[in-house]
Amino acid sequence: xxxxxxxxxxxxxxxxxxxxxxxxxxxxxxxxxxxxxxxxxxxxxxxxxxxxxxxxxxxxxxxxxxxxxxxxxxxxxxxxxxxxxxxxxxxxxxxxxxxxxxxxxxxxxxxxxxxxxxxxxxxxxxxxxxxxxxxxxxxxxxxxxxxxxxxxxxxxxxxxxxxxxxxxxxxxxxxxxxxxxxxxxxxxxxxxxxxxxxxxxxxxxxxxxxxxxxxxxxxxxxxxxxxxxxxxxxxxxxxxxxxxxxxxxxxxxxxxxxxxxxxxxxxxxxxxxxxxxxxxxxxxxxxxxxxxxxxxxxxxxxxxxxxxxxxxxxxxxxxxxxxxxxxxxxxxxxxxxxxxxxxxxxxxxxxxxxxxxxxxxxxx
Length: 364
Description:
By secondary structure, this protein is of the alpha+beta class. The protein has four helices and 25 strands.
């Protein structure tokens, strides 16, 4: 029966088509229509009347070919002007209508209202949980050739996943009951039956399910991007290696190029009192070596300062007498009180002789 009606409608469309009265393509331009059949309950016909601004267009319709046209019972207004009409639908059928500017017809057309069907949204979704699966059910709509689409995602998913069925009884496998899931559903029409000008229903209210129980909400957890973690680790390792390299470089520099002490702390007064004049400074400086006793009784000479100054032409002092315990030792005039330190070098500068050890230095 439905196929016969479709064939008859196709033949009627070829015979009737849409008829534009003479003169309706004038300055106003053609009308652009949109027809929506809300679940075979209400039909909405709207048009774009921008080319007829300031003009109230009238809508006449009938549901049977042998009837007279009736005026639209509910106009849709836009800026105070008619822009559409709302009609009550009587199941599936052909809508005959005419849009006129006063008495002049602008557009006359006939259409199957089922070609513009928009089903109602599914209501009262129910969930039956099984092992790693869940079955979603709801009340079926009283229309044939519909598809019920169920979409779902967990808090760990970024995109919705879909499952479809010819009835509102769809089973989804591969789910984890411990995760919190979002579910929503809608109804679509089969193109083979209704054509390509139909509309899917609006999405149902989102339901939240976890461990077989309904939740008020699911707190979405955004996965920490892996590249951020990797980039952070690379940056941390780079900074650590840089600091380690600087520390190693400082130690190597310290070993290869040790710091040289400032001579003004060794030659006190050389720069402060004598402005670097070494000869003037050496006249005011007397560094005398003292003899200290060693544990085995041998004499050892220690220098209080790194520099030992001995006049080259000084008179030989009389032999000195030193006591070691109760024994007296007579000094030999041919011998000096202490021997020159091993490894030292003798430098002469004018009338002065300097004995330099390994730990002594001199800057002129």
